[in-house]
Amino acid sequence: MAAPPSGPGEPITSKAQMIEYFAAGAKPKAEWRIGTEHEKFGFTWSDLRPMPYDGQSGIRALLEGLTRFGWEPIIENGRPIGLTRKGCSITLEPGGQFELSGAPLETLHETCDEVHTHLHQVKVVGEELGIGMLGTGFRPLWTREETQWMPKGRYRIMRDYMPKRGNLGIDMMTRTCTVQTNLDFSSEADMVKKLRVGLALQPIATALFANSPFVEGKPTDYLSYRSHVWSDTDPDRCGMMPEVFEDGFGFERYVDWLLDVPMYFVYRDGAYLDVAGQSFRDFLKGKLPGRPGDTPFMGDWVDHSTTVFPEVRLKRYIEMRGADGGPWERLCALPALWTGLLYDDSALAAAWDLCKDWTEAERGTLRSDVTRQALHARIRDTSVRDLAREVIAIARSGLEARNRRNKSDQNETIFLAPLQQAVDADQCPAEWLLEQFNGPWAGDMRRVYQDCAY
């Protein structure tokens, strides 16, 4: 979720300004960077319950404890609700999920160093407070009611609106975790290519990273329950965006789509004002029912752009959003996969060749099927496992072409190892969890926390 708004910016007087906001993200290849975001579930070791905000073992104490490492607090209504430092930020998801939004970095080696540093800092402070962190896609224990909401104004508005548009939006907000990667584009045409490949192949990433088979202490029929939750959250702002695959798609068409997504809020004078379900097009005309006579600034447009959640999201970069949270080595594997696929021209072309003739219906069915079957799902006469093997090989070729090496003279392909192991074993992380749960753990859900905490 986004940090607090940075300011109103200039008034919007034309559609061109909204288009230019996204177009301004284009960068020459030499300036492309890699950003990684990962969420995890904080819990108290004494009872494995979700961390509260206040208290000795609470999120506020954790945020304040992390300031010893040079983090600066982000304050809302007198309370710390995040941290910032050197291009990174730590933010809170609605149910207290703890998220690092990493800095834009040149190499995956730097990304992995960033992940290790962050997890070490959280572990140091967490051990003092009796707090642990778990990387899975869905909170394996506890109900909605047992999860405390974080004191952020936009979350109250979203919480009230979500049940009007889907059955699982509250679960998305409070009980899911993901790992994402943010990548750059050089032009409108490059953005379109990357958005299409990212959306079409997102189910492959979902299958490789599927890591959420448990709900409220019991196995489910899903290997990625997190991905299933997103399918019943809000059809206006989630999903596979079929518009991206239509002729003529570009920045303007994305703006048109975004304008038709209902609003959540307007931020004025330090407060989030509820305009949920109302139209940004009416806002542009000064006819927003919740703010009659008011017209938007560019800050309002930027805020609105953060309230859509397709499987791949366009900002001034491209967000890959289809993967479950997981163990530390997979936090580096996701950016490795997408960097390899999208940052080399030959790899990008090869990835598009895999999926360019899939229909909208086939893409939708695949997205649905991988939530239950992961690597065992199929499209046409091909298994997702076999597709994943090809996708990993293409990503490897892209990373080899980049040839970014660490101090041990290893290139970035080393970060693909967990994904190759999953394909070779024909087993996604969720299947490993179920194997342990039904075997050595003897049905003891506490072992998920004990064996899988960072």
Short description:
This protein starts with 14 loop residues before the first helix and ends with a helix. Helices cover 42% and strands 16% of the residues.
Distance between the termini: 22 Å
Number of helical stretches of at least 4 residues: 17
Q: How does the major sheet shape up? A: 9 strands, antiparallel
Calculate the mean pLDDT score and round it. 96
> Radius of gyration, Cα only, in angstroms?
21 Å
As a percent range, the share of helical residues equals 40-55%
Q: Could you tell me the number of beta strands?
A: 17
What ranges have pLDDT less than 50 throughout 5 or more consecutive residues? Answer: none
Structural class per helix/strand content? alpha+beta
- Which term fits the overall shape? globular
Q: Proportion of β residues?
A: 15-25%
Characterization of this structure:
The protein is an alpha+beta fold. The protein is built from 17 helices and 17 strands. The strands form five sheets. Strands 1, 2, 3, 4, 5, 6, 7, 14 and 15 form a nine-stranded antiparallel β-sheet that branches. Strands 8-9 form a two-stranded antiparallel ribbon. A hairpin with a 2-residue loop joins strand 16 (378-379) and strand 17 (382-383). Helix 6 runs antiparallel to helix 11 (328-342) and helix 6 (188-209) packs across helix 12 (345-355). It is globular and about 65 Å long. It starts with 14 loop residues before the first helix and ends with a helix.
